[in-house]
Specification:
This protein is mainly alpha-helical. The chain is about 75% helix and about 0% strand. The chain contains six helices and no strands.
Length: about 170
């Protein structure tokens, strides 16, 4: 069975970014249709990321990963949980709070943009795990770079985020 997570994860990524753009435009213009679109998209993103995290767990448990890639997957998982919690907070703030008509609270928009940035970073790390480390795919040896070169950017980010010194082969 093919991995499920990559097929699902694109929906919450797109919905998160689109909701933030719609909410920002609604706050700037006052257009209620953009505010409504933003509210529905953040709800869809929160539901989608919930399914994506579950699918990621499922895929991780049945994939045979080397230790290096497994460490990246765990970092990716931690960020996934943070994004899941953040999106559900935004959704509750939007649907249960005073932000239902239009997100005029600057704190809401700042949190939404921070989450959109984290979603972008998360997507990049996920892509690096697949295309640089071969997570979830059968390596074909057909990349544009040798495997060790392809792994360097994600390993640098991992070492930076985990506050661990980079090993000489990661440089």
């Amino acid at each position: 069975m093919s991995p499920l997570h990559p097929a699902i994860v694109h929906f919450p990524i797109g919905l998160t970014i689109a909701s933030v753009i719609a909410d920002t435009a609604a706050a700037a213009t006052g257009w209620s249709s953009l505010a409504s679109a933003g509210a529905w998209m953040v709800l869809g993103a929160a539901a989608g990321v919930t399914v994506a995290v579950a699918a990621g767990y499922y895929d991780m448990k049945r994939d045979s990963l080397c230790e290096e890639t497994h460490r990246l997957v765990h970092l990716h998982l931690r960020f996934g949980w943070g994004i899941l919690i953040g999106l559900w907070i935004l959704t509750a703030w939007r649907w249960l709070g005073a932000q239902s008509d239009a997100p005029t609270d600057i704190a809401y928009l700042i949190l939404a943009w921070v989450l959109a940035g984290l979603v972008g970073l998360q997507g990049w790390v996920g892509g690096e795990m697949v295309y640089g480390h071969g997570a979830g795919v059968a390596p074909a040896g057909q990349g544009q770079q040798p495997p060790e070169t392809a792994k360097r950017p994600s390993l640098r980010v991992y070492h930076f985020l985990m506050r661990r010194p980079a090993q000489s082969e990661d440089r």
